[in-house]
Design goal:
Number of helices: 12
Distance between the termini: 28 Å
Strand content: 15-25%
Radius of gyration: 19 Å
Number of strands: 15
Order of helices and strands: HHEEHEEEEEEHEHEEHHHHEHEEEHH
Strand order of the largest sheet: 1-12-9-2-3-4-13
Shape: globular
Length: 377
């Protein structure tokens, strides 16, 4: 694939002209954050004393932010039926520094460059949202994407100025912009009926560097696209083995308007990128290359930001407990919808209440066959 000319960047409605290096820390791409850490720990745990020591150092540097402290326990769902654990993973996969839809778009695009905090109001929306559930003995897991434009009820909250705001029906991705990780957790709990045990998001620059440190990734790309965001050099042919470096992976996973199912296919591509990272991480190309291995370990610190309950010991313990999990056996699906509609002058997805109830019950009980049956690809 032709290298990107830094002088030819997207310049379309709602996008700033951004050099790749200027897509700062506010731009975030979702990959299963804790799962990436899990894969790093699980793969390296048996690799030798040096690798373990370097990994311990990296985990001690992972950032954490307050998410659960402000949530009233009495308002939360009961623990999962199977005694397992649920992770909420969020981030932005668009090539702009803030939201480009809704009334907040221009305000965020004109705002100072402020770092988002999961426990506070954020300067961007959660464009991709994933729910990961693992059962008690860590033998089963499922990953479900919630479309960013799903029309849901966002609970009442207190904004960054201390003003009490009432509950409202909006796109689910607005909850992160309005109240950070805490409000997104409460919103997702209301939609799914699942208690979220941990929250994490991933840094965009970190994931590009991680993919490059891995030597690139290979993804299954069912739909060929070209001239992405108006850039003739951003061309992704249909292929079961499309090779991507970090920045091209960023562009590939962010596209939606030129995909057959729009946001649903973008959610699918986000999950595919996660699978590709996991596959490459466990490959001989990484494990047999000491320099590459050290880069991957060091980047563990820079990739993820996690909630306040995920201290290094907890992260390592969780990761080690999932060492036996077969990634190929984990169903990765999308929450079912009834199609698109228009609400508040915006196009939204209406979640399917019948199949949705079936899905989230199946997720919480680790009924993997029903997770597939009640969801979308």
């Amino acid at each position: 694939m032709t290298a990107i000319d830094a002088a030819v960047t997207p310049d379309v409605v709602g996008f700033r002209r951004l050099h790749p290096r200027r897509l700062g820390r506010r731009g975030r791409i979702v990959v299963a954050v804790l799962m990436v850490i899990t894969l790093v720990v699980a793969v390296l745990a048996g690799y030798g004393v040096w690798a373990k020591w370097r990994l311990d150092q990296a985990l001690n540097g992972v950032r954490s932010e307050p998410v659960f402290a402000s949530i009233d326990p009495a308002t939360r769902p009961a623990p999962s039926a199977d005694g397992g654990m649920t992770f909420l993973l969020a981030g932005s996969d668009t090539l702009q520094e803030g939201p480009t839809t809704g009334n907040e778009a221009s305000a965020f695009l004109d705002s100072p460059s402020a770092e988002a905090s999961p426990g506070q109001a954020a300067p961007g929306r959660a464009d991709v949202i994933m729910v990961v559930h693992v059962n008690t003995d860590r033998s089963k897991a499922s990953l479900v994407s919630i479309p960013r434009d799903a029309y849901v009820t966002i609970p009442a909250y207190v904004d960054s100025a201390g003003v009490a705001m009432p509950a409202s029906a909006r796109k689910i991705n607005a909850s992160f912009a309005l109240g950070g990780g805490s409000l997104l957790v409460r919103t997702v709990e209301g939609v799914t009926g699942l208690r979220v045990d941990h929250f994490a998001y991933i840094d965009y620059l970190g994931i590009i560097r991680l993919i490059d440190a891995l030597g690139g990734v290979t993804v299954d790309n069912p739909y060929g696209t070209s001239d992405v965001y108006g850039n003739p050099e951003w061309d992704f042919p249909a292929s079961p083995e499309l090779e991507l470096d970090g920045f091209h992976a960023r562009v590939w996973v962010s596209q939606r308007k030129n995909l057959p199912r729009g946001d649903l296919d973008r959610a699918r591509n986000s999950r595919e990128l996660f699978r590709a990272i996991g596959s490459k991480l466990a490959s001989p190309a990484v494990l047999s290359n000491p320099a590459r291995l050290q880069s991957v370990i060091d980047l563990t610190t820079e990739v993820a930001t996690v909630d306040e309950t995920l201290d290094p010991g907890t992260m390592k313990g969780l990761a080690l407990s999932m060492r036996g999990l077969d990634l190929a056996a984990v169903p990765m699906r999308t929450a079912p919808t009834l199609g698109k509609s228009t609400k508040n002058y915006e196009v939204v997805y209406i979640l399917d209440p019948v199949n949705g109830k079936c899905l989230w019950s199946a997720v919480g009980s680790s009924d993997l066959a029903s997770v597939v049956r009640c969801s979308q690809a």
